[in-house]
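Ligand-bound model needed. 2'-O-acetyl adenosine-5-diphosphoribose.
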Amino acid sequence: MIEEQVARAADMLRAASQVVALTGAGVSAESGVATFRGAGGLWEGSPVSEVATPDAFAADPVRVWRFYEARRRQLAGVRPNPGHLVLASWQDRFAGFTLVTQNVDGLHQAAGSSHVLELHGSIWRVICTGCRRRRDDRCVPLARVPPHCDQCAAIERPDIVWFGEILPADVLAEATAAVWRCEVLVVVGTSALVYPAAGLVHEAAAAGARIIEVNPEQSALAALAAVAVRAPSGVALPQIEAALSEG
Ligand code: OAD
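Prediction:
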């Protein structure tokens, strides 16, 4: 029963002061963003897992940028949904709240979350392949494809973690510290199949945190979660928030 799961989740959160939320593609599904494993995974006939790679970029940067241009165009028209809004409000509800996401879409920030640990980078940031300078770029379409660094003239790439690359060490360290400290970890809309992001859930459990899962489908986390709210996050999170507000 969803009401019962919501009530149990709210009880756990009410008693907590240190809370972490870990989100995946599912939190943006109700905004109209396709999830990774639900999207068919093809772009111009190629698996996305072969387009979003360092090798593909080295071979043909324009082709890889056209893929990201298409995604940026789609995401530019997308708005946060009630699930993002509830997570943004939790930065004020709890004494310590950390939001960790695997998403690159920027919708948590658009909803008002001020500090988002982006494990896989951001589609709205580029990084120079030469001098490694990062900059925000929200232009859709980009002024030039591929974009070039105006300091060293090298090609810029999306500041996104591609298949086969390692996560930004500072972001992962901050996320790991937060899960070690938290009393409750809320895992929203992730299949929890991709490591090391999924490993954060195991770390939290090992450190004694209670785990709440919000996902309409059963995921790899079923055995770890103390409560699983089996509903879309745009419905479930506002219900949990309503139960918290009622006291
Ligand atoms: P997935 O596509 O693997 O999983 C999405 C999850 O969201 C599934 O478990 C769905 O059941 C769930 N879901 C669908 N609709 C939902 C809704 N309305 N509310 C809540 N949950 C819903 O996406 P991720 O777990 O985010 O990595 O994938 C993780 C990583 O895999 C991505 O960040 C990406 C990919 O490889 C990189 O790009 C490095």
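The pocket of 2'-O-acetyl adenosine-5-diphosphoribose is lined by residues 24-26, 29-30, 35-38, 102, 120, 161, 189-191, 193-194, 214-217, 219, 232-233 (CB under 6 Å).
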